[in-house]
Amino acid sequence: MIIPDTSIWIEFFKANEPYYADLKDLIEKDQVLAIEPVFAELLQGARSKRERKILLGYWENLPKPSYINVFIEAGIISSENKWISKGVGLIDCTIVVIAKKSISKIWTLDKKLKSILEDIENYQ
């Protein structure tokens, strides 16, 4: 499974290539895992009811992991690795925890997130 982060979803919704075609293909193959913190960020940036409806449509129809304590674990792993000093926030740390638990890869354009993933080997 692939976990696209917020940066990839934004490119997708803007229909920017190659992200649009690549993510569409992964969605059609049921290879995309939707995670709550990413969709919460997307919904936070929605500019209209129409955009919220589209986002919620994807949220409702994509597979999702079901884990508890991921924010707690994200806080711990961030603290242990001093990721906050690298500018990596709790949402990105949570993406890492969920990816590890679900044995998924992270697809991101975020340079700060990529900087911590170089040692983790679960990003695209």
Overview of the molecule:
With 124 residues, the chain is mostly helical. The protein has one domain: 5'-nuclease (Rossmann fold, 3-Layer(aba) Sandwich). Helices cover 58% and strands 5% of the residues. The chain has a two-stranded parallel ribbon. α3 runs antiparallel to α4 and α5 crosses α6. The model has no long low-confidence stretch (mean pLDDT 93).
Tags for this model:
7 helices, 5% strand, two-stranded parallel sheet, 124 residues, mainly alpha, Rossmann fold, 2 strands
Q: Which strand order spans the largest sheet, edge to edge or round the barrel?
A: 1-2
- Helical content class: 55-70%
Q: Count helical runs.
A: 7
pLDDT averaged over residues: 93
The major beta sheet can be summarized as: 2 strands, parallel
List segments where confidence is low: pLDDT < 50 over at least 5 consecutive residues. Answer: none
* Alpha carbon gap, first and last residue: 11 Å
The fold-level CATH name is: Rossmann fold
| Radius of gyration based on Cα positions | 14 Å
| Helix-strand string | EHHHHHHEH
CATH homologous superfamily (4th level) name: 5'-nuclease
> What is the global morphology?
globular
CATH hierarchy class name: Alpha Beta
Number of strands: 2
How much β-strand is present in the residues?
under 5%
Counting structural domains, the number is 1
Please identify, by name, the CATH architecture.
3-Layer(aba) Sandwich
Helix-and-strand structural type: mainly alpha
